[in-house]
Amino acid sequence: FRRLGGVVQVVVLDNLREGVLAADIYDPVLNPLYRDVLAHYGIVALPCRVGDPDRKGKVESAIGHTQTALKGLRFETLEEAQAYLDRWEERWADTRIHGTTKRQVAAMFAEEKPALLVLPLEPFRYYAYGERTVHLDGAIEVEGAYYHLPPGWLGRQVAVQWDLLRVR
């Protein structure tokens, strides 16, 4: 959303596995990280019906365009890859005529950009999460560090999350 310069109000969920753990039109089970990103930006998520392609947005073909742009290329850093994609987007992706709407992509975005909401001041703090089993010594291990839990938790499964910025 920072690259777009604002936040949308609604996201249509295409039941992607990284975001939706259990698809349901009324009450989908979202990946906790995905759910928290949406909450941080104040976005309402609308799930798609499974097997109903007419309810999806018109963005999926862009994935194919991006894969074509990156085919056979290797980058030393993420920044180098992003700079390449920025140039590619500016010179090719934004100037192309969209197959369904028959309009230039950059012109459509320029019309829609004023409808974006203001970004939060703080960026989202990404985290990792997982399940850990309490060991015989009463501790769980997270990224090589051990944390002790109260007595009586031996053998239990515990849901944990940790800040990615501190561990790496």
Question: What does this protein look like?
Answer:
This protein is α+β, with helices and mostly antiparallel strands. The chain is 29% helix and 21% strand. The chain contains five helices and eight strands, in the order βββαβαααββββα. The strands form four sheets. The chain has a two-stranded parallel sheet with strand order 1-4. The protein has a two-stranded antiparallel sheet with strand order 2-3. A hairpin with a 6-residue loop joins strand 2 and strand 3 (29-30). The radius of gyration is 21 Å and the shape is extended. The mean pLDDT is 86.
Summarize the structure.
Helices cover 29% and strands 21% of the residues. The chain is α+β, with helices and mostly antiparallel strands and 168 residues long. The strands form 4 sheets. The protein has a two-stranded parallel ribbon.
Strand order of the largest sheet: 1-4
Question: What profile does the largest beta sheet have?
Answer: 2 strands, parallel
In N-to-C order, the SSE pattern is EEEHEHHHEEEEH
Radius of gyration: 21 Å
Overall outline: extended
Q: In terms of structural class, how would the helical and strand content be classed?
A: alpha+beta
How far apart are the termini? 24 Å
Question: Which consecutive residue ranges, at least 5 long each, have pLDDT under 50?
Answer: none
Report the portion of residues in β strands: 15-25%
Mean of residue pLDDT values: 86
Number of strands: 8
Quickly count the helices: 5
Name the helicity range: 25-40%
